[in-house]
Design goal:
The complex is a heterodimer of chains A (435) and B (718).
Chain A (H helix, E strand, L loop, with lengths): L25 H6 L4 H7 L3 H11 L11 H6 L10 E6 L9 H7 L1 H15 L3 E6 L4 H16 L15 E6 L9 H8 L23 E5 H13 L1 H7 L7 E8 L5 E6 L2 E2 H8 L9 E5 L8 E2 L6 E2 L1 H6 L8 E6 L4 H15 L5 H18 L5 H14 L6 H16 L1 H10 L13
Parallel strand pairs in A: 1-2, 1-4, 2-3, 5-11
Antiparallel strand pairs in A: 5-6, 7-10, 8-9, 8-11
Helix pairs in contact in A: 2-6, 2-9, 3-10, 5-6, 6-9, 9-10, 13-14, 13-16, 14-15, 14-16, 15-16
Chain B lengths: L4 E5 L2 E5 L5 H7 L23 E4 L6 E2 L10 E3 L3 H16 L15 H9 L16 E2 L4 E3 L9 H9 L5 E4 L6 E4 L12 H5 L5 E3 L12 E6 L8 E7 L2 E6 L13 H5 L14 E3 L5 E3 L2 H17 L4 E4 L6 H14 L5 E2 L6 H8 L9 H6 L2 E5 L3 H4 L1 H14 L2 E6 L10 E4 L5 H13 L4 E5 L6 H12 L4 E5 L6 H6 L6 E2 L3 E2 L11 H6 L5 E5 L15 E6 L4 H5 L2 E4 L8 E4 L4 E5 L11 H11 L9 H11 L7 H5 L4 E2 L27 H5 L2 H5 L15 E3 L5 E3 L6
Parallel strand pairs in B: 1-5, 16-17, 16-25, 18-19, 18-21, 19-20, 21-22, 25-26, 26-27
Antiparallel strand pairs in B: 1-2, 3-4, 3-5, 6-7, 7-10, 8-9, 11-12, 12-13, 14-15, 14-27, 23-24, 28-29, 29-30, 31-32
Helix pairs in contact in B: 2-3, 7-18, 8-18, 8-19, 9-14
Classes of the chains: A alpha/beta (435), B alpha/beta (718).
Chain lengths: 435, 718
């Protein structure tokens, strides 16, 4: 089901089946362009499929935005080892809730995307790794997998091609870190969910020491339509190097929060004002977190910006996972910063020192600050500690914690300072608060 | 070899071989890049982030422990940015560290202290509450203090990768991550303490050493472990004449970072309350009574002289633990002074037959480092991980680092099964199993054959024939069980052989009685037992014989003696010992037990008392005599003197000798036993959870912590 009314401004390329009755059933899928792309793919060489993906300029929808066609081209073939297709459905970035809809409403589209990936690298096995909290989605995807087996889209000799492909769901165990691709692989292999040393990258040494295609749910769900309608058509929907559409997950202080499929490069202010029906209660916009909680915040005056990977990168933030959090003028930025760092301190896997100790320390300082025990020097200390983490951690989780924290302090220093001067409890707290 | 890579580090042009990690390339150039988690020979972690350096043309600081050097790379290890990063990382590390250095065992030899001293900030900006977790005891040996832990995962890796035990893991996540033992609240493992030694901080501490001393109060004496035959270097921490700890302080021995539970913890026999400190002489009322050394020596000398004068029948039983010098002098005394060939020791492997079978070959005896470097190895008839822990570690390391092929032919499951090609064969049927491996073995470029006491007599010759038939270079190791078993054999503490495997017949003597025959003989007039305890197994049949015993304790044999002389332990004397592979190493005296004398000194004093001239009697002088006169022992003196291992090759022609396979018996020790000596180690006995049954179903076992209630291991449910 959908959780919000669709907007007329949406361009539904991967979400157009969401509103169909029985959208999860294979019959609905087959009646609406389903399993056409895999038939087409079976007639194509792997190179032709990868070229089509490169032409589409599809970029990874999980957060890093790496070009998908290129990622697939790195997977060595004929190594004598098995190879794997893994779907990263460990959607955990705060503010992000799109993969959930794709699995809940159109699981066959995802299965078809994984089939195409499997055919491309001649893999015989795939796993959909779904975050533990999405237990109910595992049932939906499992049902769809069973249907696909029953109709011969999974299993032996798919569509008479002589090629076999088995697909399984696998439950995550409740760790944000396991959304990082190598930690996800460790978790899938039954080990502790900590990231692996790279290189080698998963394309070469991935699941079970073998070549692996590992993509986000939305990325894989976008593959069938690209093969069906062509990479050039898909690329046209968006901007150069930022092809197609993506599901934007909008939460926060807007009138109509929800998940909307919009072309890459859709202007942020139009998203807020036209798609989401403007700010709630007519309040003024204060800031937007544009790509999940790990993306640095944009101040209201920076929000006149197209939502694509490159424009946001130029603004020193990122498109990330497409989770936008819109904050109005009443928002307490110190509280937002605290909520954010609490999340990362809780989710740090503890593997490396700067992330493990840095997130925990930042959480304590910002918590103390939030509760009125802050000192002037803390503001610079927060910024400096974030800086001591940036680019020095083993995996991007440390950056994901440090970047937004640094941005909150840099862009809303005044709020931190006024907290210091006007806190209700500030007078009551001794100068040096040792808890 | 591939062309070296040229790169620049701190303004210096240097070279390194391709694939060298930057951290090691820097070390070769004399530049230290600090790191906690990087440890030579263990898997790469990149977890501590201390080794971040600046590499030109890369946007971020780079991890030196995982980055191979590249042509033209320009590296800065001491730029402002790098210094700031190190300071930042150390500041993070100290946030939850208790800073209890004044009472921490590691204080003074702690890598965290050293790093903060060198690279850290002088003041702390952390004013929040620290995370505290109570210290845990995991076994009689291992204690874990989580707040001190910096999570470098060295312990997890040495246990899993190094030893193949996998007893440690990581629990929780984030700032409350901690190391966890394999059985929930306690450890069931080899208790080797490698995790404690490798810990850079005071997180893992040892039950024997904790809170006993400050490291700088000890004198550190590097010597050779006195238990099994592997010849590991152990460094004794000696304070006021007492051993406080034994560990692998500088990893300079042939064993590198390896030591087993015996090498690290079973030194406490040395101070067992039952140590003998005065000579004992049997009084007329039948009791053993303490007397002075002068009195005791006079009693023995008088008796020996008298018996010799009337052509009495002497027999001498030597030790597997005494030094080469002591063994050499003992057999010299027996053959020259007592004029007897009845001399033997408890032989635990058929070394002499191997020497005979190999006679004039070059390069046929493997060194301990060969075990690490050979492309392939075959183990026959030994539960290596239990009986020969360092040899097992060495082969495993060879497999780990060099992908060596290891084959094992054993009667039952062994730990080598985890990585080796193993075949189970009943004792006596090993050669059938060998035949089925023939094709694979013949395809190897080289091979080391390591065989246990099950292969003896004819079987040894047959094994060498098998090795020859493979048509590849083959080296051999004949496994023996105790710290100087090999030396006793080389020094001629054997009835038919003089030092260096010369037949006694060459000297115009007849071979005498062997160990078992000496015990069984009823007509002996005197039995001299040095550092061995035969009566534990079998009484001395010559009930009327005069029995002299030199030992540390009042053993079963000593209780039968007429005179007991208190001997110094291997840790209390100088000398040399020869390990299982024939590597000679030096013992250095650490502690001293008042009243005890080294066996060498005792033999020399007896000779003096009997007015006999044995010429050289100091450890140094006897070693020189051995170097000159014993085949294979003309080793470089400087190597031995500076604490190195020198390989002996006592091969030079056939050995005219009757091998007596029935006299060769494995001592059957496990990781947790060490013959009579092991019985006097409290620590060794404390950790025996299931003697010799390391591999039984762990779910059926329980464990009692000292001073606590019994903790049942709950059977895991599905």
């Amino acid at each position: 089901m959908r959780y919000n009314e669709p907007s007329p401004l949406e361009q539904m390329v991967i979400s157009y089946r969401f509103d169909l009755p029985n959208s999860t059933s294979i019959d609905t899928y087959l009646a609406n362009d389903g399993y056409v792309a895999i038939q087409k793919a079976i007639g194509l060489t792997p190179e032709a499929i990868i070229d089509e993906l490169k032409a589409s300029s599809l970029r990874g929808r999980g957060g890093a935005g790496f070009p998908t066609g290129m990622k697939w081209s790195f997977v060595p073939r004929n190594t004598g080892k098995p190879s794997y297709v893994i779907c990263n459905s460990d959607e955990s970035e705060p503010g992000t809730c799109k993969d959930r809809l794709l699995m809940e409403n159109d699981p066959h589209q995802l299965i078809e995307g994984m089939l195409i990936a499997g055919w491309t690298i001649k893999s015989n096995k795939g796993y959909v790794v779904i975050r533990g909290e999405y237990r109910y989605l595992i049932e939906i995807v499992d049902r769809a997998i069973a249907e696909a087996y029953a109709r011969g889209y999974l299993g032996k000799n798919i569509l008479g091609s002589g090629w076999d492909f088995d697909l399984y769901t696998h439950s995550g165990a409740g760790a944000y870190e396991c959304g990082e691709e190598t930690a996800l692989l460790e978790s899938l292999e039954g080990k502790r969910g900590v990231p692996r040393l790279k290189p080698p990258f998963p394309a070469v040494v991935g699941a079970f020491q073998s070549p692996t295609i590992l993509n986000n749910t939305e990325t894989l769900s976008s593959i069938p339509v690209i093969l069906r309608k062509g990479g050039a058509w898909y690329a046209e929907l968006g901007l150069p190097k930022n092809g197609g559409t993506r599901l934007m997950c909008v939460s926060g202080h807007v009138n109509k929060p929800g998940v909307y499929e919009l072309p890459m490069g859709f202007p942020l202010m139009r998203l807020i004002n036209e798609v989401c029906g403007g700010m709630r209660n007519g309040k003024k916009l204060k800031a937007v977190i544009p790509g999940g909680s790990s993306s640095p915040v944009l101040k209201a005056e920076e929000c006149d910006i197209p939502l694509d990977y490159d424009s946001l990168a130029k603004a020193k933030t990122m498109a990330g996972s497409g989770g936008l959090v819109v904050l109005d003028e009443d928002t307490d930025i110190v509280a937002v910063a605290l909520r954010t760092i609490k999340f990362y301190a809780h989710e740090s896997c503890g593997w490396c020192i700067p992330c493990r100790e840095g997130t925990a320390w930042l959480k304590k300082i910002i918590g103390r600050f939030h509760d009125g025990g802050g000192q002037q020097s803390d503001i610079d200390l927060i910024a400096e500690l974030a800086n001591n983490m940036l680019g020095r951690t083993f995996c991007p989780l440390g950056d994901a914690a440090a970047m937004p924290t640094a941005a909150f302090v840099a862009k809303f220093r005044d709020e931190f300072e006024s907290r210091l001067n006007h806190s209700r409890t500030a007078q009551a707290v001794p100068e040096l608060a040792i808890v | 070899m591939a062309d070296p890579v040229n790169f620049t580090i701190d303004g210096r042009q240097v070279q390194a071989s391709p694939g060298t990690l930057l951290i090691n390339a820097a070390k070769q150039a004399g530049i230290e890049i600090p790191a906690f988690c990087y440890y030579d020979g263990l898997s790469l972690q990149a977890a501590c982030r201390m080794c971040l350096v600046e590499v030109e043309k890369t946007p971020k600081l780079q991890v030196a422990c995982t980055l191979p050097v590249a042509e033209g790379m320009v590296v800065h290890t001491d730029s402002a940015q790098v210094r700031q990063a190190r300071k930042g990382t150390l500041e993070f590390l100290l946030t939850n560290h208790p800073l209890d250095c004044p009472v921490c065992d590691k204080g003074g030899e702690c890598e965290l202290q050293d790093m903060v001293f060198r690279y850290g900030a002088g003041e702390s900006r952390f004013v929040e509450a620290k995370i505290h977790v109570d210290e845990k005891q995991w076994s009689p040996i291992v204690f874990y203090d989580a707040p001190r832990c910096i999570l470098c995962y060295r312990c997890v890796r040495i246990c899993g990768e190094g030893l193949g035990v996998n007893a440690l893991g990581i629990g929780n996540r984030g700032a409350v991550s901690e190391i966890v033992p394999n059985r929930g609240d306690h450890l069931e493992c080899d208790e080797c303490g490698a995790c404690i030694d490798i810990c850079p901080v005071g997180a893992l501490t040892s039950g024997t050493y904790r809170y006993k001393t400050r490291p700088w109060e000890m004198e550190h004496v590097g010597t050779i472990c006195t238990h099994c035959s592997n010849g590991c270097k152990t460094t004794l921490g000696v304070r006021n004449g007492h051993i406080i700890r034994a560990n692998n302080r500088d990893r300079s021995g042939l064993n590198g970072e390896f030591l087993c539970v015996k090498g690290r913890y079973a030194f406490d026999f040395n101070e067992h309350p039952e140590r003998l400190t005065a000579p004992l002489v049997r009084a007329t009322n039948g009791e053993l009574r303490p007397v002075s050394w002068a009195q005791a020596l006079a009693t023995v000398a008088k008796k020996f002289t008298e018996l010799r004068a009337r052509n009495g029948k002497f027999a001498v039983l030597g030790s597997n633990h005494t030094t080469n010098e002591e063994n050499y002098l003992l057999q010299k005394f027996a053959r020259q002074v007592l004029r007897t060939s009845n001399i033997d020791h408890h032989r635990t492997g058929d070394v002499a037959t191997l020497m005979d079978a190999l006679h004039d070959r070059q390069n046929a005896l493997a060194t301990t480092s060969d075990l690490y470097n050979s492309k392939a190895a075959l183990v026959i008839g030994s539960d290596l991980a239990q009986e020969q822990p360092f040899i097992a570690f060495q082969l495993r390391a060879n497999w780990r680092h060099h992908k060596a092929h290891v084959y094992a032919v054993t009667p039952g499951p062994v730990r080598e099964d985890n990585y080796a090609t193993t075949l189970n064969a009943e004792p006596g049927r090993e050669f059938e199993a060998l035949e089925s491996l023939r094709e694979k073995l013949a395809a190897e470029p080289e091979l080391i054959i390591v065989f246990g006491a099950a292969i003896k007599g004819q079987a040894v010759a047959r094994l060498v024939e098998f090795g020859d038939s493979l048509n590849i270079p083959v080296k051999y190791v004949c496994l023996v069980d105790y710290s100087n078993s090999r030396g006793a054999s080389d020094m001629g503490v054997v009835p038919g052989l003089l030092p260096g495997y010369h037949s006694v017949q060459d000297a115009g003597l007849e071979p005498g009685l062997n160990y078992d025959q000496i015990l069984a003989a009823t007509d002996l007039d005197a039995v001299w037992v040095v550092g061995t305890n035969p009566v534990a197994r079998q009484p001395i049949a010559a009930t009327n014989a005069f029995v002299l015993v030199q030992d540390l304790f009042l053993t079963e044999t000593a209780r039968r003696a007429d005179v007991v002389l208190p001997a110094a332990s291997a840790y209390e004397k100088n000398g040399t010992v020869t390990n299982v592979c024939g590597d000679v190493q030096k013992l250095s005296r650490g502690p001293k037990t008042m009243g005890a004398k080294s066996d060498l000194e005792i033999i020399a004093l007896l000779a003096k008392e009997m007015r006999e001239d044995l010429r050289a009697t100091s450890p140094e002088a006897v070693f020189q005599e051995i170097r000159k006169s014993v085949r294979g022992y003309d080793v470089p003196f400087a190597v031995v003197e500076t604490g190195g291992a020198a390989h002996t090759v006592p091969l030079n022609g056939r050995v005219a000798f009757e091998s007596e396979p029935e006299a060769i018996r494995s001592a059957g020790n496990t990781l947790f036993t060490s013959g009579t000596l092991g019985r006097f180690s409290k620590m060794l006995n404390a950790v025996i959870e299931s003697p010799g049954a390391l591999y039984e179903d762990p779910h059926k076992r329980s464990f009692v912590r000292p001073g606590s209630v019994q903790v049942e291991t709950v059977t895991q449910e599905k």
